[in-house]
Amino acid sequence: MATTDPAQETPPQGLERLRSTLRLLYHGQSPKALRFQSIILVVDLAIIAFFIATPLLRDSESFLWIDYSIAAVLAVDLGARALAASHPTRWIRQLPVIIDIFILITLLAPTWLFNLGFLRILRLWTLSRSSLVWRPLEKRGLADYRDTIQAVINLLVFIFVVTGFVYTAFANRESGIAGYVDALYFTVTTMTTTGFGDIVLPGTFGKLVSIVVMIIGISLFVRLAQLIFRPVKIKFPCPQCGLQRHEPDAVHCKACGHLLNIPDEGEG
């Protein structure tokens, strides 16, 4: 009877132990895991703050040092998350992961890819899809505001992406954009369709950019307003049709008419 080498059947114990530890840290609920996740969240927020301030700091002597330090932190985080993933090949095909890899590339080549540096703010969008953010918020009863918070984040990301693009593509030209604040001012006035006219992007391309900013900006504003002013609903899946949100005092599901048993706020 043929025998098989146990080493060929089981992966290295050290690697499996590391993956198990990382999985518990990134997805666990223990006090140690929650502390780790809080540290990761604080680091992510600090990185995003650096990305926002990058146009103002790029002439600083410490800029490259900070840039490469953040690249190292992001690379370690991506590697750890890859090890913690149950299916690494499926994990790496996710859009937030692809965006993070692109951001890492721009950090590793800040001189060559500086014109694409404004896309680093997309890290805020990927962070808003992370369970590291929503798990503690859900424990504080803020899960019902998830859509509203994500709409705010989508709007902020769009503002800073457009601001970075306008600053990179049109600064120091006849547009009147002399600095990053001018680009931010143009973005906000264009999105709100205020259009004072003191800053105008030159040429046909500039007009097309302004049109796109207005259309998408207004859409994001309308979406945010709908979420803020719509009637308050609670999340309670209907056993019959699966409808997720209902009025707090609903007795029947408005989609299928099934009798609901929504617990009061004081109940478990």
UniProtKB/TrEMBL annotation:
The keyword Transmembrane applies. It holds the Pfam family Ion_trans_2. Its main location: membrane. InterPro entries: K_chnl_dom, K_chnl_volt-dep_EAG/ELK/ERG, VG_K_chnl. GO terms for cellular component: voltage-gated potassium channel complex. The chain crosses the membrane at residues 39-57, 95-114, 149-170, 208-229. One of its GO terms (molecular function) is voltage-gated potassium channel activity. It is found in: Membrane. GO terms for biological process: action potential. This is Voltage-gated potassium channel. It comes from Devosia lucknowensis. Keywords: Ion channel, Ion transport, Membrane, Transmembrane, Transmembrane helix, Transport. Residues 157-229 form the Potassium channel domain. It is a multi-pass membrane protein.
